[in-house]
């Protein structure tokens, strides 16, 4: 039996402390992708705090030192990307932004990306939508629907239980979505564990809904006529 080529997933962690909750979230997300993937997954973690000086040198000189060059090559050559940042001043960290400023603007086009962030309070959770998602939209990456924010309280037992809508459940859902995109399968199919149209209930219900919608559509001109417009 021939072995399958591993899927290359790179997790970028912009955490500054050691140990780091940002790195912990990146590891948990990578683990969820590995469990959900149909093929073997090869995970590489890029710790930006180890590259901070190299990033500054590159910004000033325009030439990346070898370690930074290797990290940039790993990111742009990945099949899927996990990007996790701590929240600084209601946005991503400067180190996180500086690293992605060095990525070629076309290198992430079409790449599946899972977004994550950590912070001290849940009030900053919208950073995923107003800061991270626009950044990767600019880079023309494909972000998965579920982005994961972990506040300090999420790491407790109540927030981490699976099945209660807590952190563990969000991590599992996001990991499955990234695994699906990397594999080229629709995200919606991955959530239900089915391929498109598989299963009498989900497939027929979807097709029936499409038919009902088409039947209900009335040409715009007819609607205007009814209104006397």
| Beta-strand content | 15-25%
Mean of pLDDT: 82
Number of helices: 10
> Major β-sheet, in short?
7 strands, mixed
Give the class from helix and strand content and strand pairing: alpha/beta
Write the H/E string, N to C: EHEHHEEHEHEEHHHHH
Work out the helicity level.
40-55%
Q: Which regions contain 5 or more consecutive residues with pLDDT less than 50?
A: 158-164, 193-227
Overall, the morphology is: globular
- Give Rg in angstroms: 21 Å
Number of strands: 7
Gap from first CA to last CA: 68 Å
List the SSEs and their pairings:
Blueprint: E1 7-13, H1 21-36, E2 41-47, H2 52-61, H3 66-76, E3 80-88, E4 91-92, H4 94-101, E5 112-119, H5 127-138, E6 142-143, E7 148-151, H6 157-160, H7 167-182, H8 187-192, H9 200-216, H10 220-227
Parallel strand pairs: 1-2, 1-3, 3-5, 5-6, 5-7
Antiparallel strand pairs: 3-4
What report would you give on this structure?
- The protein has 229 residues and is α/β, with parallel strands linked by helices.
- 47% of the residues lie in helices and 17% in strands.
- The protein has ten helices and seven strands.
- Strands 1, 2, 3, 4, 5, 6 and 7 form a seven-stranded mixed beta sheet that branches.
- α1 crosses α7 (167-182).
- Residues 158-164 and 193-227 have low confidence and may be disordered.
């Amino acid at each position: 039996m021939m072995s399958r080529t591993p899927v290359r997933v790179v997790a970028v962690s912009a955490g500054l402390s050691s140990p780091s909750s940002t790195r912990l979230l990146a590891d948990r997300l990578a683990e969820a992708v590995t469990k959900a993937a149909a093929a073997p997954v090869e995970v590489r973690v890029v710790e930006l705090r180890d590259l901070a000086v190299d990033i500054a040198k590159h910004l000033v000189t325009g030439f990346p030192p070898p370690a930074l060059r290797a990290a940039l090559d790993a990111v742009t050559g990945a099949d899927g990307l996990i990007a996790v940042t701590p929240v600084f001043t209601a946005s991503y960290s400067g180190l996180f932004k500086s690293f992605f400023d060095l990525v070629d603007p076309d290198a992430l086009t079409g790449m599946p990306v899972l977004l994550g962030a950590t912070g001290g309070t849940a009030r900053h959770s919208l950073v995923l939508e107003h800061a991270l998602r626009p950044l990767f939209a600019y880079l023309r990456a494909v972000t998965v629907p579920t982005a994961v924010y972990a506040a300090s309280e999420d790491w407790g037992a109540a927030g981490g239980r699976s099945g209660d809508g807590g952190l563990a459940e969000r991590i599992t859902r996001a990991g499955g979505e990234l695994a699906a995109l990397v594999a080229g399968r629709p995200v919606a199919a991955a959530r239900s564990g089915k391929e498109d149209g598989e299963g009498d209930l989900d497939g027929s219900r979807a097709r029936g809904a499409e038919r009902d919608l088409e039947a209900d559509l009335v040409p715009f001109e007819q609607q205007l006529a009814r209104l006397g417009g």
